[in-house]
Amino acid sequence: MRRTRRKTGASQLPDIVSAPPVGGQFKPLDRDKLEHVTNAAFEILEKIGVGGVPEDVRDLALANGAQAREDGRITFPRSLTEDVIAKACKRVELPGFVRERGIEVGGGRVHIGTGGAAVQVLDAHTQKFRDSTLKDLYELMRVVDISENIHYSLRPVVARDIEDPRTLDINTAFAAMKATSKPIGTSFFEPANVAPVVEMFDIALGGEGAFKKQPFCFASICHVVPPLTLAEEAIGVMRECVRLGMPLQICSAAQAGATSPASLAGALAQGLAESLAGLILVNMMEPGFPCVLAFLPFISDLRTGAMTGGSGEAAVANAAAAQLLFHLGLPSTVSAGMTDAKTADAQSGYEKGYTIALAAQGGADMINLSVGMLGSIMAASKEALVIDNDMCGAILRSVRGVEMFEGAVDLDVIEQVVTGEGHYLGTAQTLDLMTKEYVYPAIGDRQSVNDWLESGALTVWDRAMAKVSEIETLPVPSHLPAEAEAAIRAKFPILFPEIPRV
């Protein structure tokens, strides 16, 4: 989305691109460190490689230039890795179910999204945690649908009221598709579950092959079990997704001090190697297939061994992961916003704030797990999602930085003000820039103390609860045609109840 160019100055400056902004200004790794970690990752692939390689994948890899160690591990010569990087897809198009709501992933353009596969939700009224359900999944993603600062939604919770894996995969994809017309992401328990979901998407879009032309859903696949061991079932899912044209987000999520080295540099080197190993395999299956690398360096609290999502180390490690992939020109996903707090309190705010801000400033193309999560991504909350959407508006504005456009520094306006009214409040320039240069919170409060007290002294949680209630009274999303939904319900075991259309 581009703004119109103002003609008040003499120089011809580029139009401002307002959203999504391009990150990459924050560089936690200087040039020497960047090269050192990158070279270490190449060396890991060349000397140590990956284990647990399924036989069919082994044959494919060896036929395409990989090598086998005596212990069965498969290694990748540096020349092979560099060739794959050079030829890999650099821009991944993720259309929405409504195509124009889609995103282009790559080049450091920052997109905010959900994710995390939480198993609990926080009930806003009782302040108690309970198991997440299919209804919770739908309602969370419905909040995403109207959140202006959230660009896509990878399923944030697991529907624990469904036990059968095939039924769960189908219903997860259905509920996500029905809730939002933005790009969605899902996961699969086993390869056989991919085909029925793609068939369902074809029906939704109007016929066989329609999804391949408009792949509004990506598959999130943890292709590796750190350290450096392939996940056989996940590799099978990867092959099915490639065959059926579902874009991939392939995940390496080692935990520093547990499943990757305790040093951040070592964790980054191993994680980059694991990410690149997945990219190599995808491109061996189909050269140039749309694939985003989800390089998620998780952090351990070394006092207990538990994961800490909200630490300063998590913030800098994920920003560095974004920088490494940006340096290689590859589409990236990192994790941020994974607060360890259990409620949307001060701890939640500061942990989410600095982790998401650093990831965005680092140039992450997609930031997963970033909104709506609590308790180290074990729980989700609609109210937290609303609050985080507000926060991300400010973070995305910070990524834009100070923009220079024609008329940004206008001496004529300054002259008129200092010799006239003495303030800029009523000038045409100020009125023009109110909604272009500035972002305003919808949930955050900027009243004076007295005005806030007189208006009810509502907290940010109070306002978030009210916003969620407002969303739940809105007409249900109507992008999924009624006849397509009926056909899907007739063919697949859809457990999500029918909702009357207004």
From TrEMBL:
This protein's record includes keyword RNA-binding: no
Keywords assigned by UniProt, alphabetized: Methyltransferase, Transferase
Cited InterPro entries: MttB-like_sf, MTTB_MeTrfase
Region listing for Disordered, in residue ranges: 1-22
Superkingdom of origin: Bacteria
Family in the record: Belongs to the trimethylamine methyltransferase family.
UniProt name for this protein: Trimethylamine--corrinoid protein Co-methyltransferase
Organism the protein comes from: Shimia abyssi
